[in-house]
Amino acid sequence: MMDPMNVSLESLVRTNILQLSPYSSARDESPDWMPEQRVMLDANENNLGGPLDPVLARYPGNLRNQLTAQVAQWKGLETSQVFLGNGSDEAIDLLLRAFAEPGRDNVIQMPPTYGMYAVQAKIQGAEVRNAPLNPDFRPNPKAVAAVTDQHSKILFLCSPNNPTGASLPESFITEILETFPGLVVVDEAYQDFSKEKSWLSRIPAYPNLVVLQTFSKAWGLAGIRLGMAFAHPFVVRQLNNIRYPYNINSLTIQHALSALKQKEEVAQQVAQIREEREKLAEALKTLPTVLEVYPSDANFLLIRVKDADSLYRQLALQGILVRNRHKELHCSQCLRITIGKPSENQQLLAALHQFDIHS
Ligand SMILES: Cc1ncc(COP(=O)(O)O)c(C=O)c1O
């Protein structure tokens, strides 16, 4: 296998993407323009300003640069290592589009895991290969090696993993980074809730490492659709070359810039959610219908129950929606439950208690 320091990122990219001349606006081509000082007659906007905020009358190029710079500073990276996407789902999609040649390349995932890796890969026409987790949800390096070949372009690692809640061991990810011949995507959507360290600081050491994070979970901003990919500047450039020119809208950027001024409030909510998670886990363990509560580094718990389908329906009838994962690999009779507000967690426990009494 390959020394990651010798990974030729260029050789991993699809030829048509490498050869692409990306769309470029007049403002991209005139990097020294200052919005306040220019008469902007280049983009066919409504220069009278429209009915709302005049900022919204403009395409969001300059605002995007501001947000990229702020995110880079916050994460201790260069702007060239930061990609902003319409949710991290967009980053997953664009990674596949840039690196996986339809009909030829394959990508690897470790089920049970986040469903969009396989969906987006299939849309792209890339083969999806599975290197299943062991039944105890630990990773299996041999399973990864067994399905890897020279056409393996991306390995998706989700840590903490959805739906299991478990973080992948550092030694496993290091081994993968040092042996896998393609990109290693570490999806850290739930990292804020974890006791483990982020992989961001390892980006300079591993050119094949891509770290995904999102504003949808800890930041409480799922509605603005903002995700981040952090990687070697070459990888970030490929993603920027193929995204829609204005994939992040101005409202999203405004909200993200405001949120970044409130990091402490976010940290407090994360601490509260973690505390609630432990309380809920302990309470669930006392219920006869709950056979197992898996340890979680995320803002949800995976539980094994006596009859997941029936419990799922009963909860739904009481207006409580959880995620039924019964059909996922190694997850028979499992439900995934997001940590709610304290009152919601109490409602859930009361409903489960009722279920125990009547079953
Ligand atoms: C592991 C994982 N990655 C990515 C996402 C998508 O996040 P976003 O809202 O940023 O597209 C989710 C959403 O549930 C997720 O569970």
List keywords for this structure.
359 residues, 7-stranded mixed sheet, disordered N terminus, alpha/beta, 4-stranded antiparallel sheet, binds pyridoxal-5'-phosphate, Aspartate Aminotransferase, domain 2, Aspartate Aminotransferase, domain 1, 2 domains, 38% helix
Could you please describe the fold and organization of this structure?
There is one protein chain. With 359 residues, the chain is of the alpha/beta class. The protein contains 13 helices and 11 strands. It has 2 domains: 4-262, 3-Layer(aba) Sandwich (Aspartate Aminotransferase, domain 2), CATH 3.40.640; 264-358, Aspartate Aminotransferase, domain 1, CATH 3.90.1150. The strands form 2 sheets. The chain has a 7-stranded mixed β-sheet with strand order 1-7-6-5-4-2-3, sandwiched between helices. Helix 4 (61-75) runs parallel beside helix 10 and helix 5 packs parallel to helix 6 (116-124). The longest helix is centred in the last third of the chain and has 23 residues, at 263-285. It is globular and about 70 Å long. Bound molecules: pyridoxal-5'-phosphate. The site of pyridoxal-5'-phosphate has 12 residues, from helix 5.
Topology, element by element:
Elements: H1 9-12, H2 15-18, H3 26-29, H4 61-75, E1 82-85, H5 88-99, E2 106-109, H6 116-124, E3 127-130, H7 141-147, E4 152-158, H8 170-179, E5 183-187, E6 209-214, E7 227-230, H9 233-242, H10 250-259, H11 263-285, E8 290-293, E9 300-305, H12 308-317, E10 323-324, E11 334-338, H13 342-358
Parallel strand pairs: 2-3, 2-4, 4-5, 5-6
Antiparallel strand pairs: 1-7, 6-7, 8-9, 9-11, 10-11
Helix pairs in contact: 4-10, 5-6
